Amino acid sequence: MAINATRISAGGALEVLRAAWAAQQAGGMTASWMLHGRPGVGKSEIVAQLAAEIDAELHDLRLTTIEPQDLRGLPFYDHEAGKTIWYRPEDLPDGDRPAVLFLDELTAAAPSLQPTVYGLLQERRVGRHVLPQNVLIVAAGNMVEDGAVAYEMGTALSDRLVHMVVQADVDDWLRNYAARAGVHPSVAAFLKTRPDLFETTEAALRRGDAIACTPRSWQRVSDIMHQTLPRATCQVMISGTVGEAAGADFLLLAEELAACVHVDKMLATAREDRAELYPDTLHGITALLYGLVGAVDARTMPAAIEIMSDLRSIDRAGLPVSELSTFGFELLIGRAMEQGWQAAFVGSEAFASYQKDRAAAGLP
């Protein structure tokens, strides 16, 4: 059956789960949530980020690796009471601290496990163990058409969940995830100009290719790029992650950027001497923006503000330097708010100049 629910970005799904948690804590509603989506679109990352934001314990149950008794617990005979008593499994939340119970790979779980899961999703209980009110239940899984191991979801299971279909959205990923996660600037710059290679699962299935580009695979490419590796080794690793063609295109750009983007040098250089350090290409400036946001700390934030502001006056014919400066400031301000570095913007002459110019142009 098709999942006739709203298709939403990873950032949008996270926002919905934030609202769900707030409503549950306020006593307004209690529901179990289901994230559908292709492999690698970020379903697990959404749940992990939510748990971190609300300071909750994350209980991650991979349903393909457990049996019904692993959820039900183990019985023992109480001779004095004349009853069979069940030991509750330690994987289920039980305490005062907020918790997220993540039932991953729900659609790939054996059908024999589903009746046990029903009680968790609807009644929030297994046997006599009832989940506390401070537990948010989120499930995730792939769909049959994704080429992953998955069973069709029956109506008895589907009716116990609130569904969302998570789709890969490169703009959402670059704006809300890349800088915060420290994605390598060459990866961000490449995907900014090649959004068609952000998620290629459907095309790979049509071609019969085993390897596809996904948000998860690009995160792995970023991890590779953060290492100091021989070019030949790096090429093998990257082509084995996103495919040979996409890997070759990416490496060409990465080598170009390595020669023209020098984030640490710009941060350490005096303001009056930075002009010649700005890259000449759209790829290069985009990589510079993401590199700055990823590298900045409380000490270097004033210099980063200057670099973003001065970008507007750099002579780069044909490049939208003003728009790039605005986009860079959006990323930088978001980073500062996450880390509590907002004070760097107060009293900054560079930021005041940027705001003055925007006001003069009638921009907010």
Keywords:
364 residues; Rossmann fold; alpha/beta; single chain
Explain this structure.
The structure is a single chain. The chain has 364 residues and is an alpha/beta fold. It has two domains: 7-167, P-loop containing nucleotide triphosphate hydrolases (Rossmann fold); 171-360, no CATH class. 48% of the residues lie in helices and 13% in strands. The protein has helices at 10-25, 43-53, 68-72, 114-122, 155-158, 170-181, 185-193, 201-207, 215-225, 231-242, 244-260, 263-268, 282-295, 301-310, 321-339, 349-360, and strands at residues 7-9, 32-36, 57-62, 74-78, 83-87, 99-104, 125-126, 129-130, 135-141, 162-167. It has a six-stranded parallel sheet with strand order 1-10-2-9-6-3, with helices on both faces. Strands 4-5 form a two-stranded antiparallel ribbon. The protein has a two-stranded antiparallel ribbon with strand order 7-8. A hairpin with a 2-residue loop joins strand 7 (125-126) and strand 8. Helix 6 (170-181) packs across helix 13 (282-295) and helix 7 packs across helix 13 (282-295). It is elongated, with a radius of gyration of 24 Å. The model has no long low-confidence stretch (mean pLDDT 90).
Order of helices and strands: EHEHEHEEEHEEEHEHHHHHHHHHHH
Mean pLDDT: 90
Write down the Rg.
Answer: 24 Å
The separation of the N and C termini measures: 46 Å
Can I get a quick summary?
Helix content is 48%, strand content 13%. It has helices at 10-25, 43-53, 68-72, 114-122, 155-158, 170-181, 185-193, 201-207, 215-225, 231-242, 244-260, 263-268, 282-295, 301-310, 321-339, 349-360; strands at 7-9, 32-36, 57-62, 74-78, 83-87, 99-104, 125-126, 129-130, 135-141, 162-167.
